[in-house]
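For reference, the entry.
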Amino acid sequence: MMQKSRIATLTLIIMLLSVNAFPVSAVDTLVPSDFKLKSWSKTIDFFDYARLYAAQHNKTAPPDDWHAYLYLNYVNISGVRMLYAGLSNITLNQTSLTVPLQTFMMHFKSKDGLKDVITGTSFMMLLAFNETDNTIFQQSPDRNDTLYASFSLGCDLSQYFGNSTPPGLSSKTTIIPLTTTNNRTWTWGMKYTNLTAIWWKTSIDPNNPNRDPRPIAITRYDELTFVYNLTINPTTGKATMNIDYYIGKMRDLWVIGWIIIFPVIFHYNATGCYTLKGVKLSGETIYDFLRNQGIKMSIVQFQSTVVLDHSAYYKSGSVNVTDNEVFVDNSKISTFANDGERIFDADFSSKTTYKLFNYTDDPTEEEFATYNTTTRTCKIAGFARNPIFQVHTSLMKLIPLVVAHMDPALYQQAKDHLLDMSYADYFYIIAYPVYGGYRIEHDPTYTAYCSLTQEGQTPPPDTTPSFPKMGLVVIAGLAVAVAVAYTIIRRR
């Protein structure tokens, strides 16, 4: 099965990088000349492309009812090229599935104008956690805590619910259109509503990353929303990305207890605890349960940078954070080229707090309390080698292909190191210690230090190949994630 998964993944990569256009049906078309424009916003169906490729190369085509819609935004202003890709939803065999994959990549010249830089930031998942007496990092999920990876991979839940109807795993995805103010500030995003996710008990111990194959809970979030704000300032030489995260309140929670191989399920909502047949067992609400169990919430993200003809390293203050566990909630993580030039910042000091909207006290969710976040970097292997994260890490592993297209010689020299995922990059966790299942709002900041031009000025010579190759790699990454997700669904 693993070999089949690898073959499917490789096939999708080859398919994506073999032709120059994305044919579509009832969605948009993407062609290389698009990347010469100042901006655009499109939605494409990856499987339409795959079907045409199969027809042209005498391959078996995916079924006609397979669809994977990717929402793409592109900005090309003053020497900065930004490509965003978000996965709307997947339809396989008339089954709809939502996996909230999000990534953006930026290509720019460094401040000194001599280095080509590609940097990428990707949202991986929500991670709920319960701290144990042996916790290593207070108010942050670690290897000694009880961790619950929160996402849906289309698992068939009917076997656990008997004669009762299991919760649906699809949600509604709403696109926030790309808009701009004076070609300097750009805003867009995606909103997943009624998002149903499965919680899987997992371990991020780098020496033994693993997960329990049995789901431990199923929950429904009001929403999971990402709003991106890109500001390009040629005067300061900075391209700043603010990302607003909105994690909606949990409305329903099905807790699955296991007696050897037999599941016992209880349903919690805002009015109490019930059996699957609707018999009320107690007045303990979903919010009471989460508070009583000490459940907290966090998000896991991945950052990577490629500096052509240079290496990169990451520091918070004087501490190198690569594959290191370092608190950074009151500071920033800076990316440097090996000659010491600052390339990129992930800034957590500018917004060290988050908003929590207590639905129990205020059902209108207009009032909020403010609490401190806890942000730290973590060991890479706990995620990169964890089988439950294979959909997400499939996307990250394609970063080296960007270098392959831009500088084949450099890729040949460094491919073994780059493909290891232990190269100069880092995972980080933003934790929200006070939670209770309520709505969270937070907005970290990312800054790229660039050599920028004013509108109307002649840009410096671009010595790199065209941006479409980079764009295709990002799309390939999401497509590979789709392929792996499908393999997992088939396996289950």
